[in-house]
Specification:
Elements (H helix, E strand, L loop, with lengths): L5 H14 L1 E7 L5 E3 L8 E6 L8 E6 L10 H10 L3 E7 L19 H13 L3 E7 L1 H16 L4 E7 L6 H12 L1 H7 L3 H5 L4 E2 L2 H8 L3 H4 L3 H11 E4 L2 E4 L3 H9 L5 H7 L8 E6 L11 H7 L3 E6 L6 H4 L1 H13 L5
Parallel strand pairs: 4-5, 4-6, 6-7, 7-11, 11-12
Antiparallel strand pairs: 1-2, 1-3, 3-5, 8-10, 9-10
Helix pairs in contact: 1-10, 2-15, 5-6
């Protein structure tokens, strides 16, 4: 398998950047968030949105997986936005990812609290009802913010969409919890840490970068617009050419310090359990949703829609876009009107 041609991907990047607009937000020390200019000043959270939706009273907060960017899911968010003109989408670049300029030292990362605080500050600024959609690590962040917000103002949480959230088998979950206290054990347990740390960080040119990705099976399976969204914000200019926006060391650290406590939190905070929730997962090897635990999610959420996809793995949102667009539209059309 090979990727769609470089010229076509570049045309899709141009189309994406022509439709969406980047916004940078100042995340202050007191947890508040203020809109700033469209310039990428230091220590700013970045999100892409549709500029013609300013003033909307409903918002779709999209959070990406480890190493990816918000724009990777622009095609999913756009389908929902076109069907619901009253919703303004926000494709968030998590701290250390995409175009966000917020600093983060991978060596000091021990949990996801900083990520959650950034998202909370953004959500506090947005008026009206919020809908959350996240993939992988982003699904955990979406769940955390929706759960916290629902505990205080449940009327503000319109829906929650979890795309391949991290829901490991019980034995692996228990082992990784122990691994949080013994980092060397975690590095042995989690097969994603070492490959992430060894990922190539930079190339001399855009063409060289694209050529290095050309025969990678992972990206060859991506929907072209998902791949274009990733490249548009996941690759940045550097002193020597182009480089990954998310440093390999940070991607590896995120795999090591996954937030595994969240499912227990949801059991204790019952208000989130009434929120309309959609969960989609792949059934192939590589999915982070253990088949034996899907029933637990069904018992947690009282208003849950589950989609298991036979020929999909963890990258379901980037490989089965048309399927998810249809199912997400059906889910959102069924939501109570705010």
């Amino acid at each position: 398998m090979t990727l769609t041609s470089q010229s076509y991907i570049e045309s899709r990047i141009g189309a994406l950047l022509g439709r969406w607009e980047g916004r940078w937000f100042d995340i202050s020390g007191d947890g508040q968030c203020a809109a700033v200019s469209e310039e990428p000043l230091p220590e700013r959270l970045h999100a892409m949105t549709l500029p013609d939706r300013d003033g909307a009273q409903e918002h779709l907060i999209v959070t990406h997986g480890n190493g990816m960017t918000g724009a990777t899911h622009a095609n999913l968010a756009l389908a929902l936005a076109e069907a619901s003109p009253n919703i303004q989408p926000w494709l968030v670049d998590t701290r250390g990812h995409g175009r966000s300029t917020l600093s983060l030292d991978p060596a000091k990362l021990r949990d996801f609290k900083r990520y959650s605080a950034d998202l909370k500050a953004l959500c506090q600024r947005l008026p009206g009802r919020l809908h959350f959609m996240g993939h992988s690590m982003g699904a955990l962040l979406a769940m955390r913010e929706a759960t916290d917000l629902c505990a205080k103002t449940p009327e503000r949480v319109g829906s929650l969409t979890l795309l391949e959230p991290t829901l490991l088998s019980r034995p692996l979950y228990a082992a990784m919890v122990v691994g949080h206290y013994i980092p060397s054990l975690m590095r042995r347990l989690n097969p994603l840490i070492k490959p992430a740390a060894r990922r190539r960080p930079a190339w001399e040119s855009w063409a060289q970068m694209f050529a290095s990705y050309e025969n990678k099976e992972l990206f060859a399976a991506f929907d072209p617009d998902s791949f274009a969204g990733y490249l548009a914000t996941g690759i940045k200019a550097s002193q020597f050419g182009v480089a990954l926006s998310c440093a390999p060391a940070l991607e590896a650290a995120n795999f090591q310090w996954l937030d595994l406590s969240l499912w227990g939190t949801i059991k204790r905070r019952r208000s989130i359990r009434d929120v309309p929730t959609f969960m989609a997962y792949g059934k192939l090897t590589g999915s982070t949703v253990a088949p034996g635990r899907v029933g637990e999610v069904e018992s947690l959420f009282r208003n849950l829609t589950v989609l298991g996809v036979e020929d999909a793995d963890h990258f379901l949102p980037m490989t089965h876009v048309e399927l998810l667009q249809r199912e997400l539209l059906r889910f959102h059309q069924s939501l109570p009107q705010g």
